[in-house]
């Protein structure tokens, strides 16, 4: 229904895989916590964990067709993940996707009662956003800034003799060396790396 209700640029506005993978971490963690709390059986927990690992390995990417345009708190994506996990668990347990009855009380795993146990879209979607943002900053942004910083340091030495035209508020064409300009960029990247709460402790 979500796809039918929001036919908006579905070819380019699909929910980012980073969010889907973050949901997999979240659902896996919730299953383990629910098992420890005694409200989810070990069998159901193991199935949820197995499917979440498949999601994180990128094997089920095509099972998440929803776009970013949704109502409310991202309930559609939360339930999309729940249903994929429940359906895949049904298959892992010997069933077929073509089975008419997959989510009855006698099923091995219920999308809402088991996979979504102790959760709400109001909590899961913001949590998934935080997980995705942390991973992207830690794995992509910070390493890219560090590479940029090292490159600027190297280029400041390489371009030291070069005189370029700069612009200030007082003069449009001020001659200055690259070594006078690049350190400002080096300082900016260094500050961005050092002040990030996710920067390496070293």
Helix and strand element order: HHHHHHEEH
Task: Categorize the overall geometry.
Answer: elongated
The poorly predicted ranges are none
- Name the helicity range: 55-70%
Radius of gyration, whole Å:
25 Å
Strand tally:
2
Biggest sheet record: 2 strands, antiparallel
The DSSP helix count reads 7
Strand content: under 5%
- Rounded average pLDDT: 86
Through-space gap between termini: 49 Å
Structural class: mainly alpha
Q: Explain this structure to me?
A:
The protein is mostly helical and 202 residues long. It is built from 7 helices and 2 strands; from the N terminus they run H-H-H-H-H-H-E-E-H. The protein has a two-stranded antiparallel sheet with strand order 1-2. Strand 1 (163-166) and strand 2 (174-177) form a beta hairpin. Helix 2 (17-36) packs antiparallel against helix 3 and helix 3 packs across helix 4. The chain starts with a helix and ends in a 7-residue tail after the last helix. The mean pLDDT is 86.
List the helices and strands and how they pair.
Blueprint: H1 2-5, H2 17-36, H3 42-56, H4 75-92, H5 111-115, H6 121-158, E1 163-166, E2 174-177, H7 178-195
Antiparallel strand pairs: 1-2
Helix pairs in contact: 2-3, 2-4, 2-6, 3-4, 4-6, 6-7
What are the defining features of this structure?
single chain; 202 residues; mainly alpha; two-stranded antiparallel ribbon; 2 strands
């Amino acid at each position: 229904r979500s796809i039918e209700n929001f036919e908006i640029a579905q070819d380019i506005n699909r929910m980012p895989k980073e969010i889907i993978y973050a949901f997999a971490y979240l659902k896996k963690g919730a299953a383990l916590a629910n098992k420890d709390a005694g409200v989810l059986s070990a069998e159901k927990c193991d199935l949820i964990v197995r499917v979440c690992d498949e999601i994180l390995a990128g094997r089920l990417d095509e099972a998440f067709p929803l776009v970013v345009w949704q109502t409310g708190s991202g309930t559609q994506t939360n339930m999309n993940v729940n249903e994929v996990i429940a359906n895949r668990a049904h298959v892992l347990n010997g069933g077929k996707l073509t089975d008419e009855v997959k989510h009855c009380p006698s099923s091995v795993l219920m999308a809402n009662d088991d996979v979504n146990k102790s959760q709400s879209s109001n909590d899961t979607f913001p949590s998934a956003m935080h997980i995705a943002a942390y991973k992207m900053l830690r794995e992509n942004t910070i390493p890219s800034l560090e590479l940029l910083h090292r490159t600027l340091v190297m280029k400041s030495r390489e371009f030291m003799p070069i005189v370029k035209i700069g612009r200030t508020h007082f003069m449009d064409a001020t001659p200055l060396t690259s070594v006078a300009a690049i350190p400002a960029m080096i300082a900016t990247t260094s500050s961005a790396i050092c002040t990030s709460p996710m920067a390496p402790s070293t």
